[in-house]
Amino acid sequence: MTTGNGSGKRRGPLVAEKRNLKAPAKTPPKKATRKPKKPSTRKSKSPRTKSTRRGVLGWLLLPLRWILRLLWAFSWRIGGIAALCLAAAIGYQYTLLPDVDTLLDGRNHGSVTLLDDKGEIFAWRGDQFGGVAHADTVSPHLRNAFIATEDKRFFRHFGVSPRGVASAVRINLREGRGPLSGHGGSTITQQTAKLMCLGVTYDPTKWQSEAAYEADCRRGSIWRKLTEAVFAMAMEVKYSKIDILSIYMNRAYLGGGAYGVEAAAQRYFGKSADQVNASEAAMIAGLLTAPSTLAPTANLERSRNRAATVLRLMEEQGYLTSEQRKLADAAPAHLSAKATARAGGYFADWVMDTVPAFLSDDTTEDVVIRTTLDQRLQTAAEDAITYIFENKVRSGSKAQAAIVVMSADGAVRAMVGGRNLRASGVFNRATQAKRQTGSAFKPFVYAAALEMGYSPYDTVLDAEYCLNIPGSGSWCPKNYTKQFYGPVTLTQALRDSLNIPAVKLSEAIGRDKVRYVADEFGINNDLADGPALALGASESTLIEMTGAYAGILNGGSSVTPYGVEQLSLVGQSEPLIGASGGLGERVIREQAAQELVWMMEKVIAGGTGQRAQIPGWQAAGKSGTTSAAKDAWFIGFTADYVTGVWMGYDDNTPLTGVTGGGLPAEIWHEAMVRIHDGLAPRPLPMREPAQIASPQPQSSRAQSGNVLNQGVRNPGRPANDSSLDRLLRSIFGN
Fold it and tell me: Which pLDDT band, with edges at 50, 70 and 90, does 724 fall under?
C-alpha cells in the first residue's frame, strides 16, 4: 500500500534509522531564558541630577531631617525606658500600699467626747472620728457632692488628670503665680495620696511637731508632684474607685475637729452620713476647701454660701435636676441644737485641763468623759451675763465677768469664763484669774471665830482702830462708808460688811487660825500675813472661792470642785477614772457652819446683798469689793446651788460705780432666778443661835492692852472635834 503526498509521487517505506542502535540518554531541559528588558526610555538619575532637583531649600532642611531622625531614634527608646521605670515605680508603690481598711482612720490623735450630767453630748475635743463611712453606703447626695466639687472626672481618669493639671497651670500663670502655686489640678486620688502623706507616717524624731510633718506632706515641688502622681496611679491599681473615695471621705478634715464625713454629719447635723440631704451634703463637701473658716459653727452664713456653689456644680454635672437644686437652695442646711448651743466652752476647757494629758489633749485613744455640767444651768448663767451687760452696763465697756455654779459637794454645774460666751481655748477668768477677794473673804474670819466658840450675838466695838505694822508703821482700817457704828454684833458686822470689826476679830482669834480655816476650805493660794488678811488682801480664783462657800453650805466640810464624773475609752465598759473631786474632811463644826449660814442670810435679806434677793427663796451670800474697786464679787447660795460671780477688768482698771453688792449681785440674782425656775423652794440649812442672856460689858482700850478688851466678847472654845480643834490642840495641848 502506498500513500501519496499530494504530488502523486510515491514515498518510500518508513524505516527507523539505526533501529538496532542503543537509544541515547535524555538530556535535561534547557532553562528558560529571560527575555531581555526593553531599554528604558527614562534617563537614569545621576547624583548630580538628584542634588540639582533638591535645590537650596532641600539643602537647608537636610540637617533638620537628620536631627528629627536622630531624636526619634532616641525618643522612642528613652520613652520605652521611662515607661518601664514608671511601671516599676508604680509596682513598687503598689507593694507598699496596705489594705484599704487600715487607711480609713488616718488620725494621729484620738478624740474626746464630753457628756453632760444626763449623758448628752455637749462638746468635742481632739480629732473627732464618727466611725467608718463607705462611699457606697453614705447618702448619694454626699458622694455626688464630693465628686462634683473636687473631681468631676474621677471615674474616668487613671489617678492623674493631665487635662486638669494643664488647666490649673494655665489659671495659675494667668493669675500671676507660679505654675504649681495655687490651683493644683489634683484629682481625688492625688488628694487622698496627700492625706496619706504618700505613705509616710509621723515620726517625732524626724519632725519637731505634727505641724512641721503636715507642712512637709503638703510641699508643692515638682519632684513631690511626680512622686504624688506615681503614688496616685499605684492606688488606682491597688484599690477600686469606691475604695479610694471612701479613704478620702474618711480622712478629710471637715472643721470643728471632725475628721471624715460621719463625724461631720454628727457634729453639725446630729445625724449619720447616710441620712444627710442635698443641702447638708453640699455644706459638708463645701468645707473641703477651707474647713476651719467655712465651718458652720464658725460662720453659718459663709458656709451656706459655699454650699450654694456646690449645689450649682451638682446641677451642672447632672447630679441634681433644676427643680431639686431650687428646693435645696430654698431650704439651706440648719445646724442641730447641739451644734448651735456649743454649751460649756469654758467648762469643757477646764475639764480637759483637769484630766491627764495622755487622756485629753494628747490622747491617741477615743475618750468619753461624763461630766457634771447641767446644760439648763449653763444657759441660765450665760443668759444672766448677757442680760446685765445689755441692759445695765454702758455700751462699749471692756469690763469682764465670770460665773461658777456648783452643788454643795463641789460638782460644777455651769461655768462662764468671760463675756465671749462661745469661746474655747481662751483665758478662763473663772479658773485662771487670781484676783483679790475683798470682803468676800470675811466669812472665813467669822467661821474661825464661830468654831472657837464665839456667838453671832457677840459684840465688837466699831471705832477707830490702829495697828503698828513692823516696817510699815501705823495702819488704821476704815469702813467703806468712812463712818463708825459703835458696838455691833458679829452678825451686824458681817451683814453690813464692816471692816474694823473683821480686823479686830481676826486679830483676837489669831490670823493663823483664819488662814488655816480658809486654806482647809480650799483657798490654796498664798494668804496675806498682815492684818489686811481679814479684808481680803489675798488673791484667789472664782472657782476656789465658790468651792469654799460650798463647804459652808454643806455643813462645814471642805470640797474639791470637780467636773469629771467618770472617764472611759470608747468600746470599754469599765471607766478608767471616777469622780475627780467632792467632799473632803470637816473644817468646822456643823453647828458653827449653820450659824454662819444664818448670819450670811442676813446679808441678802437686809445687808449689802439685797439686790441678790430671790422671791420665795432663802438665800445667803457675801459681797466683796477690793481697793480702788478693781474687783467686785458676789458669792452666795440657796439650799440647792452655790453661785459665784466676779466682775472687773483684765488690766486691773478700776470699775466705775460698781461694788460687789451692785452689778455682781444683780448678775447673781438673774442667774439664780433662772436656775431655780420650776424648782420647789427649800429652806437653808441654818441655825439661829441662842440669845446671850447677860452680854459681857464692853471694855475700853485703856482698860486692857489686848484685842479681846477692845470690844470683842469671847466666851471660849467648845470641845467639839474638828480640824481646827485638832490644830489648836496640837499647838496648845489639851
Answer: very low
